[in-house]
């Protein structure tokens, strides 16, 4: 492990984050009984956990099942505050919630957002909402409401001007009455990766720490534009695949915790299966520069950043090439093709009881390493 990999960086303790999420979920789980056998009943698997892994699906009658999820855009906001550009953040906010919904086979339909600010600035808010509107058009959703709360010193940020935190809740309808949860995955299934050109909305604490140590407090003058690259929104594409009856067994939205956390979350629905990712998309040049500046190992880089891969689809081997061709032919992504390629496969090792994700790195060190999950 590299020396810099041992540096404790605020906000980057993934294990602690997972532990806190588990605490919150355990309390929430106890409330499920409040809607048991009523409208709003939470669909659960055998372990009395939510049956969906990236969102929660609730039932209102045998024919109506609604998915719901919530998220925010984190410290990417500081980059916007430094660079004084706000019209791209809406894409990050929308992507974080609609792509979590679609990861369980839910078609996003509506979004509500909460914007907490210290002081109000009409120009900044207009830029934020303009970006949100444009992202909603890409995702094919309606922004149905929200709240702007002026909280004074309870909110802080970088430099002069309005500082804020931004989060959203999105809902949608289960498309085929079938939750995509990974339970049908078997050894030999193929993993398709979808390309991402930026960091999406995760790993910014690590990125900002590296840039501050490398260039001082004015790092944003050279790096702001690249770090603000808006998140790709995959939801509408995935919904088209589902409605065209392409069989998708599992979907991982690669955000916080990256491959170990998000692909591991899907594989945990299976019986002792692992994954080998031998042909991921390479990281964007900007990410490679960050890795070099911070002397970050490939192992750690693939823990914190998506490394050029924003979503993974697990599909039957017989249909994998067909699905890749369909995605790459989609008119939404003209000019950015190829957006999809086969990245690896699901494996089974009967002699090794530890589940693992093997990554053949496309980053600076070109390592081959293993995450256990």
Could you describe the 3D structure shown?
The protein has 373 residues and is α+β, with helices and mostly antiparallel strands. The chain has two domains: 172 residues, PurM-like, N-terminal domain (60s Ribosomal Protein L30, Chain: A), CATH 3.30.1330.10; 183 residues, Alpha-Beta Complex (Phosphoribosyl-aminoimidazole Synthetase, Chain A, domain 2). Helix content is 32%, strand content 24%. The chain contains eleven helices and 13 strands. It has a seven-stranded mixed sheet, with helices on both faces. Helix 3 runs parallel beside helix 7. It is globular, with a radius of gyration of 20 Å.
Task: Please give a handful of descriptors for the protein shown.
single chain; 373 residues; alpha+beta; 60s Ribosomal Protein L30, Chain: A; Phosphoribosyl-aminoimidazole Synthetase, Chain A, domain 2; seven-stranded mixed sheet; six-stranded mixed sheet; 32% helix; globular
- Mean model confidence by pLDDT: 90
Q: Would you identify the regions where 5 or more consecutive residues have pLDDT less than 50? A: 1-11
**Gross CATH architecture of the largest domain:** Alpha-Beta Complex
For the largest beta-sheet, the strand count, sense and barrel status come to:
7 strands, mixed
Strand content: 15-25%
Described by its quaternary structure, the protein is: single chain
Q: Fill in the CATH topology of the largest domain.
A: Phosphoribosyl-aminoimidazole Synthetase, Chain A, domain 2
* Beta strands, count: 13
Count of alpha and pi helical runs: 11
Task: Give the N-terminus to C-terminus distance in angstroms.
Answer: 19 Å
Query: Any idea what the shape is?
Result: globular
Radius of gyration: 20 Å
Structural class: alpha+beta
Fraction of residues in helix: 25-40%
The tally of domains stands at 2
CATH class call of the largest domain:
Alpha Beta
Give helix and strand order, one letter per element, not per position.
HEEEHHEHEEEHHHEHEHHEHEEE
């Amino acid at each position: 492990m590299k020396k810099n990999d041992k540096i404790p960086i605020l906000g980057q303790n993934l294990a602690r984050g997972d532990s806190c999420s588990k605490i919150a979920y355990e309390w929430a789980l106890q409330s499920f009984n409040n809607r048991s056998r009523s409208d709003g009943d939470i669909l659960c698997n055998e372990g009395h956990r939510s049956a969906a892994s990236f969102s929660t699906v609730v039932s209102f009658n045998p024919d109506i099942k609604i998915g719901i999820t919530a998220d925010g855009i984190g410290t990417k906001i500081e980059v916007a505050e430094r660079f004084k550009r706000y019209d791209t953040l809406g894409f990050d906010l929308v992507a974080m919630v609609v792509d979590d919904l679609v990861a369980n086979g839910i078609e996003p339909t509506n979004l509500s957002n909460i914007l907490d600010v210290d002081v109000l600035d009409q120009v900044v808010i207009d830029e934020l909402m303009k970006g949100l509107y444009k992202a909603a058009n890409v995702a094919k959703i309606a922004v149905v409401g929200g709240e702007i709360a002026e909280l004074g010193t309870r909110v802080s940020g970088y430099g002069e001007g309005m500082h804020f935190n931004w989060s959203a809740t999105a809902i949608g309808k289960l498309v085929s009455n079938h939750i995509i949860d990974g339970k049908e995955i078997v050894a030999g299934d193929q993993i398709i990766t979808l390309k991402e050109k930026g960091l999406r909305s995760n790993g910014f604490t690590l990125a900002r720490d590296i840039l501050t140590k490398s260039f001082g407090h004015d790092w944003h003058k050279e790096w702001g534009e690249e770090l603000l690259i808006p998140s790709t929104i995959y939801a509408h594409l995935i919904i088209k695949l589902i409605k065209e009856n392409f069989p998708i067994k599992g979907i991982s939205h690669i955000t916080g915790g990256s491959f170990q956390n998000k692909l591991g979350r899907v594989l945990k629905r299976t019986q002792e299966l692992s994954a080998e990712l031998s042909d991921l998309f390479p990281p964007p040049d900007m990410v490679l520069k960050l890795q070099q500046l911070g002397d970050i190992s490939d192992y750690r880089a693939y823990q914190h950043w998506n490394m050029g891969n924003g979503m993974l689809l697990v599909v039957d081997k017989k249909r994998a090439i067909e699905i890749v061709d369909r995605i790459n032919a989609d008119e939404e992504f003209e000019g950015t093709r190829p957006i999809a390629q086969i990245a690896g496969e699901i494996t089974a090792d009967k002699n090794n009881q530890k589940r693992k994700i093997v990554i053949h790195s496309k980053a600076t060190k070109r390592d081959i390493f293993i995450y256990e999950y």
